[in-house]
Design a protein that fits this description.
It is built from eight helices and seven strands. It has one domain: 3-Layer(aba) Sandwich (Leucine Aminopeptidase, subunit E, domain 1), CATH 3.40.220.10. A seven-stranded mixed β-sheet has the order 1-3-2-7-4-6-5, with helices on both faces. The protein is α/β, with parallel strands linked by helices.
Length: 264
């Protein structure tokens, strides 16, 4: 399903693959996509789903970026993060690379709900066999340390938004030759944020992730934001901001069965 209002001249679109083992979450993604992401002619982002192990998907498909729904300290030694570490040769190989990036960029502790793109080219090349191993890891902490997440929080929306905007920024820098030695990210493989150790409700996770994609597709390529300096423009922007806040915070109050760890 493709969505967007982008300029073809900028060509900054990329593909997001939502992958998980549990049918409940994959079905929820698909339901939300059908409701929120109508087909449009100009592509800024395309979204697909896959039910199964991420390792199986990578055996048959080239992917540039793998998302780690991580903790703030880059300690990728449990759950999905452990599976990702093993895919790159083990915790002892991957964690130091991610930790060094965190130390350089955020003094070793990354804010929850932010995204840091980590170049793991050397590990990817050494781990590559009959499959392509993604060159980039998008480190996106859903929690400071492993814990249950508040099902009424907007953490999933914030993580998804951070991921999408970080990839867009990276691609724009590559296009301007500001990111020498780096490559464009054309595809991103992502599981459900918070649905493993955080036990975030599957349907609310799907709703927030797809809503973030919708807002990203609608807003990310706009150049002039309604004459920001004018009073009328500011009032219009506040109206849009309020609509986004209302949409994001329309939490599902009904109890949902906690999700099982995904993609392992």
């Amino acid at each position: 399903m493709e969505v967007g209002n982008g300029s073809e001249a900028r060509d900054e679109g990329f593909k997001l693959i939502l992958v998980d083992l549990q049918q409940k979450l994959v079905s929820a993604w698909q339901e939300e996509m059908a409701k929120e992401l109508p087909e449009q002619s100009n592509r800024t982002i395309s979204v697909t789903t896959y039910q199964g192990y991420f390792q199986n998907y990578l055996q048959a498909n080239d992917v540039d970026c793998m998302v780690s729904p991580a903790n703030s300290f880059g300690l990728m030694d449990g759950g999905l993060d452990l599976a990702i570490s093993n895919f790159y040769g083990g915790v002892a190989k991957l964690v130091p690379v991610v930790r060094n990036a965190l130390i350089d960029e955020c003094c070793g502790q990354q804010n929850v709900g932010s995204c840091l793109l980590v170049d793991v080219k050397e590990l990817a090349q050494s781990a590559q066999q009959a499959r392509k191993v993604p060159r980039y890891i998008a480190h996106v902490p859903t929690m400071r340390v492993p814990k249950l997440l508040n099902p009424e929080d907007d953490i999933v929306y914030r993580c998804t938004w951070a991921l999408l905007t970080a990839v867009r920024k990276h691609n724009m820098q590559v296009a301007r030759n500001d990111h020498r030695g780096h490559e464009r990210i054309n595809s991103v493989l992502c599981s459900g944020f918070g649905t493993g150790a955080g036990h975030f409700p599957a349907h609310e996770c799907a709703r927030q992730m797809v809503l973030a994609v919708k807002h990203f597709a609608e807003r990310s390529w706009e150049q002039d934001d309604l004459q920001r300096s004018s009073n009328s423009g500011l009032l219009t922007l506040w109206e849009k901001a309020d609509k986004i806040e209302d949409a994001v915070c329309s939490f599902v109050k009904a109890a949902d069965t906690p999700s099982s760890p995904n993609m392992l």
